[in-house]
C-alpha cells in the first residue's frame, strides 16, 4: 500500500511540478479543496465535488418593478461548482477538479478587478434553494431554473405581503456534454436532499441579518431590528451626513431587493462598486460577514458562540487574564467602550474565541480589531468574523509567534523595494526600519492608525478582496508621502510624517486646485485611488509568491529567537550541559515533534484521499483539516509536548540502542543534514508515509518506557523541553560514574524506596543487554585478553577487538545478575533462622571476594560489615538445605544463570585443576546463592549493593562511566556511518522478532537454540546476546511459573514431579549441545551441575579481573568463557585464544 | 561634534523599553514625556514611538523612545526595536516576582543580541504600591497603614543589577518618583563618543562611531553625573 501511494505521488510530481515540493497541504502547495474554499470563502468542510461550465442568466424583471423585457437581463459566463452544501457560480474561470492544474485552480489569485476572488456570481447554501427545475428548451440546451428562499424569514408573513416579496429565480444553462450535465444534476439532487434539514438553521441565521429588517414592508418594521452592532446604541463613528449614509442605504436596499440578500445574494458589478464607495453603517456588519465568508461559518454552527460561552462559563485561563487587562483600553475613545455594555460584548467575544482557538488564545491588537467589528455587528457575527480573520484573511498574525505579521512585513518591504526603489534606498541609507512603522498598520488592519471612519472603508474592501488590500493601501500611503519621507532621516521623523498624514485624511487632496471637483477629492479618496489603480498590479498571487519566498527566512529568524529564549529560560539543570548540547537537544526535540506532526498530517490526508476514492462520504466529511500549516516552532508551538512515541523517535535519532531491530530498517539518511535545515529536510515525499518517516524505526523496550516515565516529572505522559533537558542533564551532565549508577538504579526503583526487587534486577540486566546490543561506545580500556585474542586471531581475520568487548560485556551482565541475587537482601526477616555455619562460610568467602575488588566507592564495602551483611546471610538460609525436596523448585531458577555460567564453565575448566578444586569448594555456596531466585523469598538490592556489584566489574564500571553517557549523541546524532551495525549485527534479534522479553520467551518455547547460520564470529556474538536476553527472560519466566506452582500446590509430593519435569527439561536443553550444534549453550546435566558450582570461581575470577593484579589472565579466561558459550563445549585449551579460534571453526562447520 | 550650529551639542539616543506586560512601561514613558499618568492606556501594538529632550549641562540628549508591547508573543518582534538601540530600560513590577525573571531574560537577550555597549537600566516600577515609597509624596507614601504589596526586595534586584553592570532604580510612574532620574542617569551613562548627532549620518558612520568609542573609552566618561534633566 505504501509503495502504491508513493508511486502515485511520484506520478503526480511528474504531472504537476508544484506538487511534491511540499507534501503538506500548506500554502506552499495548497490542495484543490483549500483553493476552492478560499475562492468562495467557504468553511473547511466543503470540497469541490462537481463543476461545470455554465451561463448564468439573471432576469431583470421583478415584481416590484413591473414586467420589463424578460428576454434581456444579465448574463454571465462562468463555472458552476457544487460542494457538499453549496452551489457556487463564479465568473472567475478557475477549476478545482482533480485534473486541473494548480494555476487554473488558483486563477483567482490574479487580477480580480475589484470583484474579489469569487468574482461575479453567487454562493448559495443548498439549503437556501427552494426549487430546481429542468427547463425544456428547444436546442438541446440543458438549462436549470433555480428559485431560492430569498426573504425566508418573512415566510410566515401573510399572503397579502407575500406578493411584495419577489421570488428570486435565476436560470443557468449548463454547457457541457449531456452526460456531464446529468452527473452534475444528480449531485445537485443528492446535495439538495441532504440539506433539506438545514433550512430551519438557515432561517434562524438569516433572521439575524439586518437586510431582512431593511427589506421588510414598512408596516412590519415595528419589530426590534436585528443587532447591527454597538453603533445602534452608541451611534456609528463619523458624521452620517458626510458619509452620505442614507443615500448609500437606499442604493443597497435597491440592490438587495433586485439581487437577493444575505445568503441568496448574487454578486454583480454594482455590488463591488457599492462596496468601494463605503458601506452604510447598518449593513456594514452583514456585508462584512458575507464577503469574508464568516456567514457560512455561522451557518454551519449557529450556536457555537453561545455554546462556547456556556461551556466555559466561570473558567479561568491565561488568555482571559490578558484579555481583562486590555478591555478598558480598546478603542477607549468610542463611547460604546466606555460602557459596561460594550466592554461586556468585547470580553465575551475575545474570551469565546480564546476557547475555540486555544493555539492563538488572545493577542493584543485582537482587542482593537474586535472592538471595531462590534461597532457594526452582533457578538456572534464578530466571533465568526474573527475566526475567518485568524484562519484565512490574516493567518498567523495573532499566533503566539506572530509569524504572519512578521512575514507580511517582509513581503511589504520587498514590495516597497520593487515599486519604490528610490524611497527604499533612502530607507536603507538612513537606517530606518520600515516595519516599525508599518507593522501596526497590518496588525490592527489600520484601525488604530487611521481615523476610524477611514479604517472601516479599508476594511470594506479588505473583506471582499483579501489581504492584498492591506499591502495596496500601505504602498499607497508611502507613495503619496514619498517626497516628505525622502526628507526624513530617522525613525522619529518618518513616523511623524505619517502621523500627520493620517490626521489629515479628510482634508482635500488638492486644496489649491482650480477645479472644484478636484478640490472636493479628499486625501482618503486619493489614497484609495492610488491603492487600487496605481497598485492594481499587487494581486493575491504576487502576495502569495512573496510570502512563500520569505517564509523560511522569517520562520528561521523566529525560531532562532525562540530557541535562544527557550534555552536561556531552561532551569538550572541546563547548566550541566554545554551550549551546543542544549542547542542540539532543542533542535532534536522540536525537529521530532515537527516531523511527526507533518507525517501525521500526510497520513491522515492519504487516508482521506483513499476514503474519497472509495467514495466513502462519511470519511470525507470527517477529513476536516485546517489548511494552516502547523508544528514548526516559528508557526506557533502547537505542540511543545513529546509523547512516548515521539520520545522513542527522539532517542533513535541519537542513540544506537534506541533503534529497533526490525529487519527492514531504512537508514536515517536525513540525519546528517538535519542539523542545518531541520524543516527543509522534510520535503521528500517517498519516505514520509512510513509512521517513522525516513528515519529508522525506534525500539520499544521497557527501558525506554522507564526513561520516559522518569523524565516525565509531572506525570503528564508527555515531556516538555525542560523535562528532556533535565533528564539528559542527569545522564550526560555530571560525567561522574556514581551519578550514572545512581541514576540507573533510580530508573528501576519503581516505588522510590531505595530497593529494587528481583523483577527489577532482571529488568536492569535486560536493560543492560538492551543498551549494549549494538556494542559499547565510549572509552573502554581494552583488556589484555582481548588484545591477546585479536592478535591470536589475526589469521582468523574476522574478529575485531570491539566484539570481544561486547562478548565480555555479556559475561559482565550475567555476572551482574548472579551477584545481584547473591548480595540481595531478603524482604522477609523470618528467614533468619538459618544454619549458621553455612552462612558464615559464605560470608567469609564473600568478604574475601569483596576484599579482592577494587571499589571506588567506600559505600560499597558496607555490604560486608553492616546490616546488609546479616540480610545477606539470611537470604542464603533457605538454600542451605539443598537436599530437601523443599528447595527443588529453586533448581529451576538456577538454570538460567547456569546457562550463562555454563558457557563460562567451558573455559573455566580449561583453567586447570586448581580452578576445579575451588569450584568444588564453592559448589554448595553457589547453590545457596542461587536460592535467591526462589520467588517465595522476596528480595531486593539496595543502591549500595548495586553500586558494589557494578563496580565489581570493570566493564560495567566503564559502561556507567563512559559508554552509557556517550551513547547519547546529542550533537552529532547518528550519522549514517554510525548505524551500519544496525541491520547486520542484530539479525539474530530480528529473526527472533524481538522486543527483548517477548522474543526470549518465544525462544524458550521449545528449541532454545538459535542456529547461528554460519555467520562467523558475528553470529557467535549475536547468539551470545540472544542467549543473554534469553537467560534473563527465562529466569523470569521460570520464576513466574514456579511462583504459580508454589501458590497452587504447596504439597511435598508435588515437588517430586517438579524434579522430574526439570530433569526432562535438562535433557531437552542439553540435547543441542550434545549434537554439537552451534550455539549449543546448554550442555548435559552433569556439566551443568559443575557449572553451577563454578559460580563462585567465576565471581572470584571476575573480581580478580577488576583488581589489576590478575586482570590479564582472568580477563582472558572470562573472554574465552563467553566465546565458549557459543557452543564449543569443553574444548577450550589453556590458551583462551585458541579456544576462541576453535569456536569459530565450529561455527563455520555448523 | 558635527552639529556646530547649536551652542550645546544635541544628539539623539535610541532607547527601548522592554519588560513583561502591564509592568508600566508605557506609563513610565508617558510620565517622562508628558508628565502625565493614565489608568487605562491603550495597549501598545508593536511599539509606540515617542521623543523627549533631556538637557544636560554640556549637551542635549534627544531620546527616541521605543515603547514595546509587553505581551509574551510580541517578544519575537523585539529584535526589530532594540536594533541599534543605545540604551534600554528593562522594567519589572515590584509587586510581581515573575516580572523580574522576565526582566532578567531581557537583560540577557540584550547583552547577547543588542549593539555592544548598550546602556541598560533595570527599573522596578509601581513603588507607589509598596510601603517604602519614600520619595513618592503622593498617595502611595502612607507608611505603615497600607498593605505592602512589594514582592521583590530592593537588595535582590540591586545585587543582580550590580552583578550585570546595570543602572538600577525603583520608580513610580503614578507618583512620578524617580522617573526623570532614570532617564537622566541613562543620558549621563551614554558615552559621549557613541552619540550620533541629531541629524546623524547613516550607516556609514556607524563603524566610525564604534571606532571612536573604543578609542575614547578611557577618556573622562561622565564627569558630569548627577546633573538634572530639564524636562
Automatic annotation (TrEMBL), chain A:
SUPFAM superfamilies: EF-hand, Ypt/Rab-GAP domain of gyp1p. Residues 1085-1098 have a biased composition (Basic and acidic residues). Residues 864-873, 1057-1067 have a biased composition (Acidic residues). SMART domains: TBC (SM00164). Residues 780-790, 1101-1123 have a biased composition (Low complexity). Residues 278-466 form the Rab-GAP TBC domain. GO terms for molecular function: GTPase activator activity; small GTPase binding. InterPro entries: EF-hand-dom_pair (IPR011992), Rab-GAP-TBC_dom (IPR000195), Rab-GAP_TBC_sf (IPR035969), Rab_GAP_TBC_domain (IPR050302). This is Rab-GAP TBC domain-containing protein. It comes from Triangularia verruculosa.
Automatic annotation (TrEMBL), chain B:
The keyword Nucleotide-binding applies. Residues 195-231 are annotated as: Disordered. The keyword Cell inner membrane does not apply. Residues 197-208 have a biased composition (Low complexity). GO terms for molecular function: GTP binding; GTPase activity. Keywords: Nucleotide-binding. Gene3D superfamilies: P-loop containing nucleotide triphosphate hydrolases. CDD domains: Rab5_related (cd01860). It comes from the Eukaryota. It holds the Pfam family Ras. This is Ras family-domain-containing protein. It comes from Triangularia verruculosa.
Amino acid at each position: 500500500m505504501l509503495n502504491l501511494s508513493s508511486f502515485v505521488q511520484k506520478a503526480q510530481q511528474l504531472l504537476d511540478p508544484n506538487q511534491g515540493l511540499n507534501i503538506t497541504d500548506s500554502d506552499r502547495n495548497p490542495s484543490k479543496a483549500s483553493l476552492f474554499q478560499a475562492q468562495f470563502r467557504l468553511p473547511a468542510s466543503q470540497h469541490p465535488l462537481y463543476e461545470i461550465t455554465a451561463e448564468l442568466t439573471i432576469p431583470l424583471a421583478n415584481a416590484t418593478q413591473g414586467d420589463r423585457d424578460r428576454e434581456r437581463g444579465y448574463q454571465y459566463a462562468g463555472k458552476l461548482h457544487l460542494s457538499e452544501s453549496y452551489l457556487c457560480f463564479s465568473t472567475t474561470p478557475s477549476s478545482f477538479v482533480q485534473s486541473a492544474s494548480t494555476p487554473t485552480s488558483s486563477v483567482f489569485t490574479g487580477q480580480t478587478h475589484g470583484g474579489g476572488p469569487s468574482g461575479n456570481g453567487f454562493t448559495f447554501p443548498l439549503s437556501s434553494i427552494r426549487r430546481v427545475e429542468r427547463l425544456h428548451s428547444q436546442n438541446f440546451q440543458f438549462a436549470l431554473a433555480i428559485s431560492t428562499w430569498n426573504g425566508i424569514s418573512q415566510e410566515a408573513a401573510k399572503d397579502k405581503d407575500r406578493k411584495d416579496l419577489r421570488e428570486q429565480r435565476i436560470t443557468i444553462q449548463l454547457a457541457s456534454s449531456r452526460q456531464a450535465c446529468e452527473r452534475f444534476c444528480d449531485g445537485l439532487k443528492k446535495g439538495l436532499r441532504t440539506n433539506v434539514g438545514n433550512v430551519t438553521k438557515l432561517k434562524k441565521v438569516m433572521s439575524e441579518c439586518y437586510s431582512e429588517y431593511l427589506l421588510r414592508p414598512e408596516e412590519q418594521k415595528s419589530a426590534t431590528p436585528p443587532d447591527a452592532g454597538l453603533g445602534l446604541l452608541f451611534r456609528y463613528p463619523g458624521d452620517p451626513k458626510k458619509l452620505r449614509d442614507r443615500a448609500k442605504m437606499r442604493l443597497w436596499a435597491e440592490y438587495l431587493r433586485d439581487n437577493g440578500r444575505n445568503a441568496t445574494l448574487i454578486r454583480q458589478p454594482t455590488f463591488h462598486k457599492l462596496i468601494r464607495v463605503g458601506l452604510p453603517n447598518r449593513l456594514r456588519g452583514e456585508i462584512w460577514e458575507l464577503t469574508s465568508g464568516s456567514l457560512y461559518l455561522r451557518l454551519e454552527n449557529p450556536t457555537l458562540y453561545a455554546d462556547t460561552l456556556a461551556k466555559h462559563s466561570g473558567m479561568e485561563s491565561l488568555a482571559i487574564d490578558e484579555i481583562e487587562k486590555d478591555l478598558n483600553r480598546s478603542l477607549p475613545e468610542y463611547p460604546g467602550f466606555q460602557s459596561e455594555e460594550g466592554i461586556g460584548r468585547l470580553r465575551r467575544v475575545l474570551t469565546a474565541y480564546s476557547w475555540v482557538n486555544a493555539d492563538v488564545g488572545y493577542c493584543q491588537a485582537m482587542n482593537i480589531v474586535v472592538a471595531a467589528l462590534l461597532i457594526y455587528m452582533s457578538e456572534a457575527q464578530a466571533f465568526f468574523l474573527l475566526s475567518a480573520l485568524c484562519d484565512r484573511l490574516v493567518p498567523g498574525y495573532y499566533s503566539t509567534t506572530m509569524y504572519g505579521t512578521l512575514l507580511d512585513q517582509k513581503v511589504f518591504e520587498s514590495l516597497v523595494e520593487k515599486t519604490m526603489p528610490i524611497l527604499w534606498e533612502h530607507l536603507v541609507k538612513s537606517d530606518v526600519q520600515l516595519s516599525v512603522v508599518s507593522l501596526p498598520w497590518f496588525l490592527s488592519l489600520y484601525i488604530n492608525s487611521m481615523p476610524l471612519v477611514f479604517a472601516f472603508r479599508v476594511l470594506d474592501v479588505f473583506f471582499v478582496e483579501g489581504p492584498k488590500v492591506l499591502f495596496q493601501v500601505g504602498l499607497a500611503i508611502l507613495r503619496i508621502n514619498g517626497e516628505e519621507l525622502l526628507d526624513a532621516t530617522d525613525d522619529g521623523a518618518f513616523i511623524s510624517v505619517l502621523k500627520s498624514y493620517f490626521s489629515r485624511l479628510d482634508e482635500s487632496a488638492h486644496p489649491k486646485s482650480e477645479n472644484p471637483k478636484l478640490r472636493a477629492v479628499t486625501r482618503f479618496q486619493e489614497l484609495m485611488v492610488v491603492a487600487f489603480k496605481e497598485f492594481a498590479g499587487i494581486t493575491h498571487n504576487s502576495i502569495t509568491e512573496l510570502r512563500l519566498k520569505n517564509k523560511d527566512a522569517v520562520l528561521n529568524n523566529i525560531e532562532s529567537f525562540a530557541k535562544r529564549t527557550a534555552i536561556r529560560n531552561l532551569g538550572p539543570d541546563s547548566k550541566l550541559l554545554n551550549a551546543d548540547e542544549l542547542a542540539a537537544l532543542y533542535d532534536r526535540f522540536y525537529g521530532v515533534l515537527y516531523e511527526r506532526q507533518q507525517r501525521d498530517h500526510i497520513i491522515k490526508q492519504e487516508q482521506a484521499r483513499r476514503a474519497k476514492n472509495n467514495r466513502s462520504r462519511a470519511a470525507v466529511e470527517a477529513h476536516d483539516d485546517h489548511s494552516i500549516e502547523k508544528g514548526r516552532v516559528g508557526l506557533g508551538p502547537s505542540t511543545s509536548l513529546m509523547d512516548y512515541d515521539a520520545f522513542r523517535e527522539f532517542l533513535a535519532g541519537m542513540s544506537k540502542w534506541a533503534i529497533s531491530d526490525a529487519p527492514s530498517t531504512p537508514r536515517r539518511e536525513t540525519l546528517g543534514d538535519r542539523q542545518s535545515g531541520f524543516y527543509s529536510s522534510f520535503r521528500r515525499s517517498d519516505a514520509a508515509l512510513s509512521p517513522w518517516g525516513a528515519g529508522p524505526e525506534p525500539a520499544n523496550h521497557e527501558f525506554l518506557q522507564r526513561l520516559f516515565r522518569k523524565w516525565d516529572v509531572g506525570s503528564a505522559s508527555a515531556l516538555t523541553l525542560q523535562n528532556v533537558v533535565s533528564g539528559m542533564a542527569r545522564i550526560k551532565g555530571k560525567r561522574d560514574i556514581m551519578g550514572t549508577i545512581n541514576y540507573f538504579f533510580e530508573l528501576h526503583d519503581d516505588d522510590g524506596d531505595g530497593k529494587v526487587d528481583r523483577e527489577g534486577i532482571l529488568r536492569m540486566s535486560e536493560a543492560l543487554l538492551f543498551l549494549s546490543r549494538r556494542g559499547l561506545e565510549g572509552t573502554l580500556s581494552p583488556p589484555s585478553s582481548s588484545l591477546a585474542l585479536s592478535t591470536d586471531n589475526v589469521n582468523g581475520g574476522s574478529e575485531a577487538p570491539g566484539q570481544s568487548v561486547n562478548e565480555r560485556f555479556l559475561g559482565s551482565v550475567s555476572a551482574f545478575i548472579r551477584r545481584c541475587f547473591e548480595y540481595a537482601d531478603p524482604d522477609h526477616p523470618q528467614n533468619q533462622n538459618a544454619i549458621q555455619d553455612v552462612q558464615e562460610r559464605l560470608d567469609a568467602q564473600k568478604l574475601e571476594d569483596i576484599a579482592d575488588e577494587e571499589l571506588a566507592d567506600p559505600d560499597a564495602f558496607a555490604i560486608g560489615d553492616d546490616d546488609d551483611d546479616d540480610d545477606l546471610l539470611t537470604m542464603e538460609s533457605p538454600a542451605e538445605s539443598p537436599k530437601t525436596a523443599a528447595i527443588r523448585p529453586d533448581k529451576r531458577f538456577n538454570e538460567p544463570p547456569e546457562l550463562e555460567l555454563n558457557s563460562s564453565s567451558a573455559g573455566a575448566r580449561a583453567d586447570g585443576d586448581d580452578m576445579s578444586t575451588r569450584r568444588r569448594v564453592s559448589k554448595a555456596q553457589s547453590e545457596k546463592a542461587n536460592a535467591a531466585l526462589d520467588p517465595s523469598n522476596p528480595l531486593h538490592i539496595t543502591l549500595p549493593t548495586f553500586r558494589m556489584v557494578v563496580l565489581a566489574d570493570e566493564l560495567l564500571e566503564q559502561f556507567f562511566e563512559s559508554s552509557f553517557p556517550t551513547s547519547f549523541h546529542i550533537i552529532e546524532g547518528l550519522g549514517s556511518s554510525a548505524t551500519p551495525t544496525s541491520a547486520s549485527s542484530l539479525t539474530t534479534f530480528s529473526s527472533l522478532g524481538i522486543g527483548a522479553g517477548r522474543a526470549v520467551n518465544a525462544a524458550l518455547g521449545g528449541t532454545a537454540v538459535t542456529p547461528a547460520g554460519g555467520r562467523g564470529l558475528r553470529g557467535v556474538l549475536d547468539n551470545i546476546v540472544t542467549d543473554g536476553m534469553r537467560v534473563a527472560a527465562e529466569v523470569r519466566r521460570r520464576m513466574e511459573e514456579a511462583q504459580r506452582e508454589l501458590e497452587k500446590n504447596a504439597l511435598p509430593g508435588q515437588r517430586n514431579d517438579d524434579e522430574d519435569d526439570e530433569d526432562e527439561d535438562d535433557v531437552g536443553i542439553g540435547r543441542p549441545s550434545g549434537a554439537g550444534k552451534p550455539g549449543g549453550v546448554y550442555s548435559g546435566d552433569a556439566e551443568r551441575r559443575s557449572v553451577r558450582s563454578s559460580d563462585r570461581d567465576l565471581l572470584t575470577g571476575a573480581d580478580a579481573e577488576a583488581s589489576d593484579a590478575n586482570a590479564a589472565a582472568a580477563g582472558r579466561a572470562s573472554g574465552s568463557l563467553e566465546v565458549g558459550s557459543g557452543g564449543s563445549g569443553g574444548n577450550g585449551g589453556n590458551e583462551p585464544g585458541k579456544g576462541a579460534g576453535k569456536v569459530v571453526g565450529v561455527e563455520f562447520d555448523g | 561634534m558635527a552639529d556646530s550650529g547649536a551652542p550645546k551639542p544635541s544628539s539623539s539616543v535610541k532607547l527601548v523599553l522592554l519588560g513583561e506586560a502591564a509592568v508600566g512601561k508605557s506609563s513610565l514613558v508617558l510620565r517622562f514625556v508628558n508628565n502625565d499618568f493614565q489608568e487605562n492606556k491603550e495597549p501598545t501594538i508593536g511599539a509606540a514611538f515617542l521623543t523627549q529632550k533631556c538637557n544636560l549641562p554640556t549637551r542635549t540628549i534627544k531620546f527616541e523612545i521605543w515603547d514595546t508591547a509587553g505581551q509574551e508573543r510580541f517578544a519575537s518582534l523585539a529584535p526589530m526595536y532594540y536594533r541599534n538601540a543605545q540604551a534600554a530600560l528593562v522594567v519589572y513590577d515590584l509587586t510581581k516576582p515573575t516580572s523580574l525573571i522576565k526582566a532578567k531574560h531581557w537583560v540577557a537577550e540584550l547583552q547577547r543580541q543588542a549593539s555592544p555597549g548598550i546602556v541598560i537600566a533595570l527599573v522596578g516600577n509601581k513603588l507607589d504600591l509598596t510601603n517604602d515609597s519614600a520619595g513618592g509624596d503622593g498617595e502611595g507614601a502612607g507608611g505603615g497603614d497600607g498593605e505592602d504589596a512589594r514582592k521583590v526586595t530592593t537588595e535582590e534586584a540591586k545585587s543582580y543589577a550590580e552583578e550585570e553592570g546595570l543602572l538600577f532604580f525603583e520608580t513610580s510612574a503614578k507618583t512620578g518618583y524617580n522617573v526623570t532620574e532614570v532617564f537622566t542617569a541613562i543620558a549621563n551613562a551614554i558615552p559621549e563618543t557613541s552619540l550620533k548627532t541629531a541629524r546623524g549620518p547613516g550607516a556609514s558612520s556607524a563603524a566610525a562611531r564604534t571606532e571612536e568609542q573604543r578609542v575614547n573609552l578611557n577618556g573622562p566618561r561622565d564627569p558630569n553625573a548627577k546633573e538634572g534633566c530639564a524636562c
